[in-house]
Amino acid sequence: xxxxxELAGTRKEDLEVxxxxxxxxxQGDRPHPYPGNHAGTTHLVRxxxxxxxxxxxxxxxxxxxxxxxxxxxAGFFRIEVPKQL
Length: 85
Hints:
The protein has a single domain (about 1-30, about 50-80), classed as Immunoglobulin-like. The relative contact order is 0.35. The strands form 2 sheets. The protein has a 3-stranded antiparallel β-sheet, with no helix packed on it. Strands 2-3-4 form a 3-stranded antiparallel β-sheet, with no helix packed on it. Strand 5 (about 70-75) and strand 6 form a beta hairpin. The protein is about 0% helix and about 45% strand. The chain is mainly β. It has no helices and 6 strands. It has strands at about 1-5, 15-20, 25-30, 50-60, 70-75, 75-80.
């Protein structure tokens, strides 16, 4: 099973991944690319949220989450979870 999470603008060192039972928790912080006071700023289009985030995924039975392999490149966090033998 492959899990692919889009994390554009997030540095690898700002990610924390934990496993609790059959749940995979991905936490991190996406800093604003233009620090400073943005009060009153109007955005016509804004596709990326900034700040702290958390995603929790339920891994189906039959997969060995503790043997997962992860990589992070070009804003994508990829996790390969092997099937139980």
